[in-house]
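pipeline: protein-struct stage 2 | run 1193 | LysR family transcriptional regulator
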Amino acid sequence: MRPVAHLANLDLNLLVALRELVRERSVTRAAQRLGVTQPAASASLSRLRRHFGDELLVREHGEYVLTPLGEQLAEQVEAVCVAAERLFAASSQFDPATSDREFTLVMADYTIMVMGEVLSHAVQRAAPRARLHIRLVRESLAAEYSDGIRFVDGMVAPPSNGFALPDTRSAELFRDRWVCVLDGDNPVLDGGSALRVRDLAGLPWVAPYYRAGERGVASVPVMRQLALLDLQPRIAVRVESYLAVPYFVTGTDRVALMQERLATRLAATSNLRVLECPGEAEPIVEALWWHRQFEDDPAHAWLRRLIVETSRRL
């Protein structure tokens, strides 16, 4: 087992070098971004290789690729560098008109569609030099949230199972409801415009963020709603996106649950039927979540107020 590295004994400049090397996967381009010579960047890579006991970057088929450890470090170094930059940028004062701070938010493509544009304009007007880093939710909402909430300014997500962590705070942003979406020529619609639970049970499903055979499925919003309807759907397509769902429904006999705000907008430009969901549909409550360590940060408090005020105008 390798000994634990003490922070005082580390050259923290290597953190920045590591971030650029794994981002660019090129010593030459990393050197350009770091503002150093190529030999200096190569020397940093050599030191990193010795420290981790791994090549990190290897040449395959004429280009550099990350080793498995390099891939793992690529995820971690981004979060660590953002946290360090935020730490040293901390101040008791915050002026949005002059600040060039970068704010990182984690959102699903659905929430970006609902509030991304108005939020973008609000930030631009109030803080023209501030920067936004929008990270898309990947795979399990709960896993992304629990692992990374300390390293981002916030996450927009519903309060599903797995989100009630002791060090988090939240504020409600907006509400929506589940609807069913089918191709406009789906034969199940021949019997009328109302869907029944047994109709849904007999159709193949498109399910976003569904992980087959794993615990915590009810923490995925769509699957949680299906569980409340006592449905055990036959999943035909699993997709890591809400916006992608209609593309795998139109022209097929598949069905999906979608948020009404998203479904009605997409149905206007495709052969998609939007129908009431049978049974008792659970309301969708989207909230902003953040770690309690940001409670007294003036910049973060400003961002929270701006997001909440923006959501009220939706």
